[in-house]
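Hi V.,

Quick status before I head out on leave. The structure for the redesign project is tokenized and pasted below; the design run finished overnight.
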């Protein structure tokens, strides 16, 4: 599902938003590091892990791609996450943003505080985008895209506690993406004229970017 996809969804969009992605990745790496200052002194330390984490990716939400997910902590050091994203927007002028995306991940939490993690992740989904938010950011002018994709890769992330049952989860995925797509433009009467059909893109690079708000439930979940 910046993405998609950003994203990261459109295969050509990854290349055209290269500089934007660099700035976003740098920001994601710097924000969690700000919380490390003074760790072990007065900062709260999470002593017990949660059982479930209910989550939404704020980046995707801001792109009109609502995302909900859940993480099950099998053990303090391991979790299984599944996010689902879906957009079903359209207008009479032919603008459209219809996307669905499933993103599973297995992650391993590191260090004593279990905030830093590494994982294996994947994405699978379909898209039909012309203008709207994603189309306006990722496409070149008057071009729309429709197709399907899947990706797999490694993830690295950090959970920043905000309150007893609330945290921010910063995540970045890198790996391989394969997408089959058609590109098109829209005529004045709403008819689509296809520029390219049955094209395939194979790419190495970002597979997902997330700044997720997580509500944790279960377990003792104390901060001290």
């Amino acid at each position: 599902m910046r993405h998609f996809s950003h994203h990261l969804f459109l295969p050509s969009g990854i290349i055209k938003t290269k500089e934007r992605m660099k700035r976003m990745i740098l920001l994601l790496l710097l924000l969690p590091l700000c919380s490390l200052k003074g760790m072990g002194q007065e900062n709260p330390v999470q002593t017990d892990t949660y059982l479930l984490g209910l989550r939404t990716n704020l980046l995707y939400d801001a792109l009109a791609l609502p995302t909900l997910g859940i993480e099950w902590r099998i053990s303090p050091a391991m979790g299984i996450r599944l996010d689902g994203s879906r957009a079903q927007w359209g207008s009479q002028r032919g603008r459209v943003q219809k996307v669905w995306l499933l993103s599973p991940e297995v992650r391993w939490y590191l260090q004593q505080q279990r905030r830093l993690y590494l994982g294996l992740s994947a994405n699978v989904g379909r898209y039909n985008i012309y203008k709207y938010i994603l189309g306006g950011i990722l496409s070149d002018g008057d071009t729309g895209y429709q197709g399907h994709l899947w990706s797999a890769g490694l993830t690295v992330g950090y959970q920043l506690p905000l309150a007893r049952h609330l945290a921010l989860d910063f995540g970045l995925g890198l790996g391989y993406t394969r997408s089959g797509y058609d590109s098109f433009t829209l005529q004045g009467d709403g008819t689509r004229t296809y520029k390219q059909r049955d094209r395939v893109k194979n790419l190495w690079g970002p597979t997902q970017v997330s700044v997720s708000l997580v509500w944790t439930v279960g377990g003792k979940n104390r901060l001290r």
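Above is the designed sequence. The CA atoms of residues 84 and 102 lie 5 Å apart.

G. will cover questions while I'm gone.

Best,
W.
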